[in-house]
Amino acid sequence: MTNIAIVGAGLAGLAAARMLKQAGRDCIIFDKSRGIGGRMATRRVGQLAFDHGAQFFTARGAAFKASVEAWLRHGQAASWYEDNFVGTPGMTAPARSLAAGLTVEANRTVTGLRRDGPGWRLLFGDELSSQFQTVLFAVPAPQMVPILATAGIIFPQVEPVRFAPCWALMLAYDTALDMAEHHYRSREGVIAWAALNGHKPGREAIPETLVIHANPEWSRTHLESEPPAVTELLLAAARQELGIEAKPVYSAAHRWRFALVETPAGVDCIHDATLQIGACGDWCLGARVEAAFDSGEALARRVIANS
Ligand SMILES: Cc1cc2nc3c(=O)[nH]c(=O)nc-3n(C[C@H](O)[C@H](O)[C@H](O)COP(=O)(O)OP(=O)(O)OC[C@H]3O[C@@H](n4cnc5c(N)ncnc54)[C@H](O)[C@@H]3O)c2cc1C
């Protein structure tokens, strides 16, 4: 029986797995996506690359600072502006660094959980996994709740957690764009954030690439709209709010249904030592990459202390 299954290969799941592995625990990570990193994402389309999820990260606590320093030394991260860092050459680089030596199975969507004697099995649709002693969830809380429900498990700490969605628009141009700064932030218009992706450190500035994030209210209102309609509306907002008249040569909209934590659980992680089930993620502590990392490490420490 493999000791520990971790569901989710974002920063939280990877930070937990790395610490567990360093403590000699046997773990395997399952993720529904093709790659790792979760919302710390880079989409590549031919020559084009877009960080369409997290734009940068800050490092306030000692544990995350130590990891960031290692990434800086190894060229997996760089300082951007003010006290903000980016992964290099894309936002997934730090996740790849954390994943070194870990076992990750991609394209594996966990749909349920089954008790089996002293252990647990995961459901992937109709397929049942081998047995695990411990299962740790490192997915957004609203995606974890229905999976836990299949085994009759409810964590009351999750109840207050709320996420805001975000529509992200990825654009490429065959001419340079004239923006006062390489990044733009506003609390007033439809566009909450925009960044010339290629002008972040460690990226190609040509062709010109722009990532736009709509504000949470607008994203919520248009949550079920089709991507082409969202693209047209956000292009109109870019003309009005950013003064961009050029026509993009590439455009794609991505819906982040669970993007930014609005109300966190207010705990560093959840761990039930009797059930041998745990949960971590940014939603425990706040809407930041560092919060996800800290929550993952907190859960790993809890598991190590209880086994
Ligand atoms: C648009 C946007 C902008 C952001 N900007 C910033 C920023 O500038 N700075 C900052 O610090 N943070 C930012 N964030 C937040 C930051 O990305 C997150 O806090 C952090 O990446 C969360 O990590 P996590 O590991 O908790 O979750 P995630 O990264 O969401 O990882 C969860 C993983 O679980 C997988 N998964 C989900 N369900 C299942 C399932 N059923 N089976 C298997 N796998 C599953 C997913 O594929 C994913 O890989 C932003 C997020 C978004 C979306």
Provide structural commentary.
The protein has 307 residues and is α+β, with helices and mostly antiparallel strands. The chain has two domains: 2-40 and 92-159 and 266-305, FAD/NAD(P)-binding domain (3-Layer(bba) Sandwich), CATH 3.50.50.60; 162-262, Polyamine Oxidase, Chain A, domain 2 (Alpha-Beta Complex). It is 27% helix and 30% strand. It contains eight helices and 18 strands. It has helices at 11-22, 62-73, 93-99, 141-149, 216-221, 227-242, 282-285, 289-305, and strands at residues 2-7, 27-30, 43-45, 48-50, 77-79, 85-87, 104-105, 112-116, 119-124, 127-128, 132-137, 162-173, 183-185, 191-196, 208-214, 250-263, 270-272, 277-279. The strands form five sheets. The protein has a six-stranded mixed β-sheet, with helices on one face. A five-stranded antiparallel β-sheet has the order 13-14-15-12-16. α1 (11-22) runs parallel beside α3 (93-99) and α1 packs parallel to α8 (289-305). The radius of gyration is 20 Å and the shape is globular. Bound molecules: flavin-adenine dinucleotide. Flavin-adenine dinucleotide binds at residues 7-13, 30-33, 38-40, 53-57, 109-110, 138-140, 143, 166, 168, 213, 256, 259-260, 281-282, 287-289, 292.
